[in-house]
Design goal:
With 256 residues, the chain is of the alpha/beta class. It is 43% helix and 15% strand. It has one domain (6-255): Aldolase class I (TIM Barrel, Alpha-Beta Barrel).
Length: 256
C-alpha cells in the first residue's frame, strides 16, 4: 500500500507570530505549489493564526504541538481540540518526549488526549521512543510496545485509522546524534509488526510512521530510502526555511 510521505516541522518554543509569518512565507515560496510530499508546520500556539493566514490555500498544512484532553473547562493555560480546529489546524502532536520528560506526561495522560482527538477532524501524531539508558539496557522493544499499548488503550482500529506515529529516539533529539537508517528501519518495522498483530495487517500497511531525531538535509535521503520510514518529524532544521525546504526536496526526490 502506498503511503504518502509526511515531512513535519516541530518549531517547539521558538518564533514569535511575526517570525512565524516571515518564515512560512519564505517556505511556501521555496517548496512551490505541488510538492511530492505532504508538508506540515507546527508553530507555538501564539503563531497558529499568523501561520494559518499564510498557508491557507497552499500545500503546507498547519499543526499544533499539544492539546488538552477536554474540549472545554477550567484548565488555565490549556488549549482544546476545538480551538485548534478553529485556528485551522489539521494535525496535532501528542506525547512528544519533551512533554513526557519536562511536563511528566504519562502514557495515561497521552491516552486521554488521543481519546479526545480521534473523534474530531484533527489527526494525532503519536510520538514514541526510548532513552539512551533504555536502549543500552536492551529495552527498546519493551519501552515502545508499552508506550503503544498504553497510549492506544481502548481505541478501536477505526478510531486510529488516520493516526500518524512518530518514532523519536530520545537520545537523538536535539543532540546531533541520529539513529542510523538501519536502526530506524528496524524499530519502524517492529512497530508495523506490532500494529499487524494487535490490530490488522491492513492498518499496519496504511499507518504512516515518521522518524524524529536530528533530521537534517544531509541525512534525509538515506533515512527516507528505508522501506518503513514514511516521513520525518523535524526539530531544529525546521526553524529555517532554506533547510526545511531542502529536507522537503530530498524527501520528494525519494518519493517521486
Amino acid at each position: 500500500m502506498s503511503r504518502r510521505t509526511l515531512i513535519a516541522g516541530n518549531w517547539k518554543m521558538y518564533k514569535t507570530p511575526f517570525e512565524s509569518r516571515e518564515m512560512v512565507q519564505e517556505l511556501v515560496a521555496l517548496i512551490g505549489k505541488d510538492p511530492e510530499v505532504e508538508v506540515l508546520v507546527c508553530p507555538p500556539f501564539t503563531g497558529l493564526e499568523a501561520v494559518e493566514e499564510v498557508v491557507s490555500g497552499t500545500p503546507v498544512q498547519l499543526g499544533a504541538q499539544n492539546v488538552h484532553w477536554e474540549n472545554q473547562g477550567a484548565f488555565t493555560g490549556e488549549i482544546s481540540a476545538g480551538m485548534l480546529l478553529e485556528c485551522g489546524c489539521r494535525y496535532v502532536i501528542i506525547g512528544h518526549s519533551e512533554r513526557r520528560q519536562y511536563f511528566e506526561e504519562s502514557d495515561e495522560t497521552i491516552n486521554r488526549k488521543l481519546r479526545q482527538v480521534v473523534d474530531t477532524q484533527l489527526v494525532p501524531i503519536l510520538c514514541v521512543g526510548e532513552s539512551l539508558e533504555q536502549r543500552e539496557a536492551g529495552k527498546v522493544q519493551e519501552v515502545i510496545v508499552g508506550q503503544l499499548e498504553q497510549g492506544l488503550a481502548g481505541l478501536s482500529e477505526a478510531q486510529i485509522s488516520s493516526l500518524v506515529l512518530a518514532y523519536e529516539p530520545v537520545w537523538a533529539i536535539g543532540t546531533g546524534r541520529t539513529a542510523t537508517p538501519e536502526i530506524a528501519e528496524q524499530v519502524h518495522a517492529s512497530i508495523r509488526d506490532w500494529l499487524a498483530n494487535h490490530y490488522s495487517g491492513e492498518l499496519s500497511d496504511r499507518l504512516r510512521i515518521l522518524y524524529g531525531g536530528s533530521v537534517k538535509p544531509e541525512n534525509t535521503a538515506e533515512l527516507m530510502a528505508q522501506e518503513n520510514l514514511d516521513g520525518a518529524l523535524v526539530g531544529g532544521a525546521s526553524l529555517e526555511a532554506q533547510s526545511f525546504a531542502r529536507i522537503v526536496s530530498e524527501a520528494s526526490s525519494n518519493d517521486a
